[in-house]
Amino acid sequence: MSGSKNKLALIIGGSRGIGRAIVLRLAQEGFDIWLTCLSHMDAAKKVQEEVEKIGRECKVFAFDIADHAAVKRALESQVDARVPDAVVYNAGIIKDNLFVFMTKEEWDSVVHTNLDGFYNVIHTVIFPMLREKKGRIVIISSTSGEIGQAGQVNYSASKAGLIGAAKALAREVARKNIWVNVVAPGIIDTQMTKDLPKEKILPMIPVQRFGTAEEVASIVAFLCAEKHMYIHGQVIGVNGGLAI
């Protein structure tokens, strides 16, 4: 294992978009990085190179967060030997459809990945963090999980579930100096939103633009790195006023 004295951040879903921005921002804040992905290994390797250019260590893990056994195989021994100072759960998928037409596969795949993945990852890392009596956990939810969105009943359910899970976990681990919070992005300009009809969506956003991945990453970095911390069990919206 590494002999680095830097803090360590584990970023679940760190190869593209918001995850990539979080990885680079935390590297700039002085963290070594473990990033995970399911596919897009070329993108992950590029992010790894960018982190190493900043002067931090970076390790890439590839596994399916919905697969409990795969998560355990990839992470259990790693986090036991070197406990992350910060864990950011950013992974998730969308399979949008009106609920009346939504298939069982569309429901199951989104809920299993977005919500079961939270259990698989956080359950693997939480005991080592409790043992060390320190750490930050940041869960990336969504404005859809706060106010709902037509065509996203599955996605909204999973993201709302993350908020409830994070709030309950925050009550359990606070006395062990582990801080748990949620960041809920609105519509962020990434590959996932490139095909959205901007002309229909922008009038609903008071600031009249999509957010950037870097704007989400800045809040995550604050929650992971700020020394003077008294924010716990909270949902911080990064949505340009879409949900007020």
What class would the helix/strand composition place it in? alpha/beta
Q: Which percent range fits the helix content? A: 40-55%
Just give the CATH class. Answer: Alpha Beta
CATH topology: the name is Rossmann fold
Proportion of residues in β-strands: 15-25%
Gap between N and C termini: 45 Å
Report on the biggest sheet: 7 strands, parallel
Q: How many structural domains does the protein architecture include?
A: 1
Number of strands: 7
Radius of gyration: 17 Å
So what's the overall shape?
Answer: globular
Name the strands of the widest sheet in spatial order: 3-2-1-4-5-6-7
What structural keywords apply?
Rossmann fold; 8 helices; globular; alpha/beta; 7-stranded parallel beta sheet; 244 residues; 7 strands
Short description:
This protein is of the alpha/beta class and 244 residues long. The protein has 8 helices and 7 strands, in the order βαβαβαβαβααβααβ. The mean pLDDT is 95.
Give the topology:
Elements: E1 7-12, H1 17-28, E2 31-37, H2 41-54, E3 58-62, H3 68-81, E4 86-89, H4 104-132, E5 135-140, H5 143-147, H6 153-173, E6 178-185, H7 198-201, H8 213-225, E7 235-238
Parallel strand pairs: 1-2, 1-4, 2-3, 4-5, 5-6, 6-7
Helix pairs in contact: 1-2, 1-8, 3-4, 4-6
Verbal overview:
It is built from eight helices and seven strands; from the N terminus they run βαβαβαβαβααβααβ. By secondary structure, the chain is of the alpha/beta class. The protein has one domain (7-187, 214-238): NAD(P)-binding Rossmann-like Domain (Rossmann fold, 3-Layer(aba) Sandwich), CATH 3.40.50. It has a seven-stranded parallel sheet with strand order 3-2-1-4-5-6-7, with helices on both faces. The protein is globular. The model has no long low-confidence stretch (mean pLDDT 95).
